[in-house]
Specification:
The structure is a single chain. The chain is an alpha+beta fold and about 240 residues long. It contains ten helices and four strands. It has a domain of about 140 residues: NADH Oxidase, CATH 3.40.109.10. Helix 3 packs antiparallel against helix 8. The two termini are about 35 Å apart. The relative contact order is 0.20.
């Protein structure tokens, strides 16, 4: 796969302009292959506990999580990857008894940042300067926009915003897994405060939002062969 050389304009330090359209440079799946992958995936109800995701495949999944887009690029999240069986077992009672938590190869807990302070914004701007070579002063308007946005919200609203961002990451994680032939099951039926306690998140500035069990489906999972039930295109999609 060829790579795209992306020049960064000092006059536009936030949004670089690619030399070649991304869709021509990075497309590696045909439309048919993408749909086939999405048809293949389902919310796995039973995993084969003996099958583990290979290290190189998992490294790719982790990279896909790191590449998740977010509002302002702020990435208000933390992803905790659990392979320790003792920890997975301890989460079972706080997961409404859903066995996927203990059967899966990797259990991912997606956490939201519970505040967004001035220093958090400045840390992101520092990273932007570091990676793109932008001049910090050129980002002043961008910084002011972010400070104004978060200054208009209370802590509850900020956490709600962060949790919305986490669900973008969940979607990217599950789609990436499907393309790589890895099964996944999103888990909202969990007790976040207890997850926070078990995972040592209390007082860290992050809180559990949603889980995702990942691995390989059991041959005995009857749900694997069921047809997907979705509303028709006309009921869901509208073109203007």
């Amino acid at each position: 796969m060829s790579k795209c050389n992306i020049p960064f304009s000092r006059s536009s330090p936030i949004y670089p302009t690619p030399r070649i359209p991304y869709h021509l440079t990075y497309m590696t799946l045909s439309p048919e292959q993408l749909i086939e992958s999405l048809q293949w995936r389902y919310a796995t109800k039973a995993f084969d506990a003996e099958k583990k995701i290979p290290a190189d495949t998992w490294a790719t999944i982790e990279e896909s999580m790191l590449l998740t887009p977010s509002s302002f690029g702020l990435q208000p999240w933390k992803f905790i990857v659990i392979t320790d069986q003792t920890i997975k077992d301890s989460l079972l009672a706080q997961s409404w008894g859903q066995a996927q938590v203990t059967q899966c190869s990797h259990m991912v807990v997606l956490c939201a940042k519970d505040t967004m302070e001035k220093n958090d914004i400045e840390a992101w701007l520092h990273r932007l300067v570091e990676v793109r070579g932008a001049d910090r002063e050129s980002l002043n308007d961008y910084a002011a926009m972010m400070h104004g946005f978060f200054g208009s919200m209370d802590e509850t609203q900020t956490l709600s915003w962060a949790k919305n961002q986490v669900y973008i990451a969940l979607g990217q994680l599950m789609t990436s897994a499907a393309v790589l032939g890895i099964d996944a099951c999103p888990l909202e039926g969990i007790v976040p405060p207890e997850y926070d306690r078990i995972l040592g998140l209390e007082g860290t500035g992050y809180t559990t939002t949603v889980g995702c069990a990942m691995g390989y489906r059991s041959s005995e999972d009857k749900y694997a062969s069921l047809a997907k039930v979705r509303y028709t295109r006309d009921q869901i999609l509208e073109s203007l």
